[in-house]
């Protein structure tokens, strides 16, 4: 599996950055044409769309709340920890991409400083699921960046060779990403463009992470089992955090992540102690 991933990464070209950059430019030009390159107008032009999506998505609060938790890096990456054993190259790309996405997310949030929906609109007029999000900047959506950063790495890790299956695989990944990311609007935490822009930035971050791990070998130690104890400790810490979350919130996706982490921990320990 690891060989397949390495071969898939080797085929990627820099031209893959063209489409996401064109999309970002198109969004900027649209905002410029609407005189919305400021926080007030940016939120104003999205008001109707936000209320429409929030109303319809918010009809399924339990689903939306579970989906929005997947956007938490500690949850989403928990589902993929098993690849540490079977395809460590994926984790080299994930670590690199996650660091890039962190820089993008923090940098752009500080740059734009757009208020969240709960700060802009009357909270009685739309659906809020879970804790009301009022802190930090709304643009871009950090959850959306995390989701698409991770899914982009997976997209190119397992890209099929056949055109028909390739098309279906790309469609599935994009649809899955948007389905999860849209929950940020459903729970009342983000404006629609926050999610779209965050998704595009996540895609770019994922690509950058892949190119970094392909060119540099600074994370090649990830697949060496003598370093597995580091990941064992990390898994135990995350398990403890999940148990605490289950006690306080009792959300289904936390149980899923905990079970997968425990299975992955068993497999990693087995490989580590095996002669």
From TrEMBL:
GO molecular function, one term: sphingosine-1-phosphate phosphatase activity
Family annotation (Pfam families): PAP2 (PF01569)
Entry keyword annotation includes GTP-binding: no
Domain Phosphatidic acid phosphatase type 2/haloperoxidase, chain residue ranges per copy: 93-210
Signal peptide: none
Keyword tRNA processing annotated: no
Naturally occurring in which organism (per UniProt): Kaistella jeonii
Lineage of the organism: Bacteria, Pseudomonadati, Bacteroidota, Flavobacteriia, Flavobacteriales
Name listed for the protein in its UniProt record: Phosphoesterase
Membrane-traversing stretches: 12-32, 67-86, 132-156, 168-189, 195-216, 228-247, 253-273
Keywords, sorted A to Z: Membrane, Transmembrane, Transmembrane helix
Gene3D superfamilies tied to this protein: Phosphatidic acid phosphatase type 2/haloperoxidase
């Amino acid at each position: 599996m690891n060989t397949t991933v390495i071969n898939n990464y080797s085929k990627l070209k820099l031209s893959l950055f063209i489409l996401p950059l064109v999309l970002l430019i198109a969004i900027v030009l649209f905002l410029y044409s609407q005189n919305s390159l400021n926080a007030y107008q940016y939120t104003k032009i999205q008001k109707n769309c936000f209320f429409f999506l929030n109303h319809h998505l918010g009809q399924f609060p339990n689903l939306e709340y579970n989906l929005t938790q997947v956007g938490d890096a500690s949850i989403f990456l928990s589902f993929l920890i098993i690849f540490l054993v079977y395809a460590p190259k994926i984790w080299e790309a994930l670590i690199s991409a996650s660091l890039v996405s962190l820089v993008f997310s923090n940098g752009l949030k500080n740059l734009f400083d757009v208020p969240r929906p709960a700060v802009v609109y009357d909270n009685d007029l739309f659906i809020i699921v879970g804790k009301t999000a009022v802190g930090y900047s709304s643009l871009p959506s950090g959850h959306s960046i995390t989701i698409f950063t991770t899914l982009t790495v997976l997209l190119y890790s397992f890209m099929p060779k056949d055109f028909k299956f390739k098309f279906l695989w790309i469609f599935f990944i994009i649809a899955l990403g948007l389905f999860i990311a849209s929950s940020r609007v459903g729970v009342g935490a983000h404006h629609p463009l926050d999610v779209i822009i965050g998704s595009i930035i996540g895609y770019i971050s994922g690509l950058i992470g892949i190119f970094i791990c392909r060119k540099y070998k600074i994370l090649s130690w990830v697949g060496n089992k003598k370093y597995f104890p580091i990941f064992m400790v990390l898994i135990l810490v995350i398990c403890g955090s999940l148990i605490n979350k289950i006690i306080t919130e009792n959300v289904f996706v936390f149980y899923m992540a905990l079970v997968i982490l425990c299975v992955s921990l068993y497999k990693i320990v087995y490989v580590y102690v095996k002669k």
